[in-house]
Amino acid sequence: MQRMRDLVADNRLPELAAWLVAEIRKLAAAGADFALLSANTPHIVFDALQAESPVPLISIVEAARDAARAHGLKRLGLLGTRVTMQGRFYIDPFRAAGIELVPPNTGEQTFVDDKYFGELVPGDFRPETRQAFCTIIARLKREERIDGLVLAGTELPLLLREVPDLGIPVLDTTKLHVERIVDHILS
Q1: How many other C-beta atoms are found inside a 10 Å radius of the C-beta of residue 54?
Q2: FRET partner for 109 with CA separation of 20 to 30 A, picked from 38, 79, 183, 187?
Q3: Average pLDDT along the chain
């Protein structure tokens, strides 16, 4: 994870793509029928990977977009790492489907990113952090009029699992990705 974070932070995206394509090629050489990136942030180079991959890739972004479309959602909040919230790799595919994604404001993005890497990735799920995320979501509902929420970070559902109802549909990208993978395997 640290290598990926460093490459993204240094904007060395071609190097990130080359590294990941090399790993996908190893999987294909070992007999893999398809591949995936099991995290959201590396999808920043998904298009480059897909162009070079010797096997089909299953996108977490496409799985989330398709779920939003199936639910009839039109304006969703987007929570994830700063790279995910600020990048185009979620926003553009959703926009092409007629769906708008609304990230938190800049200060909230900093908070979310800091907590994501400082607490959630190491497995520290604090009640006060959960409450702060709920406050951000409530503001997005009230001020930005979101009709759903994309949890575009694999640790986010773990943080929010004790929240019974956020009052809007919540798209857990990890769960949606797994469902897409199972569908692919069974088809």
Answers
A1: 12
A2: 38
A3: 95
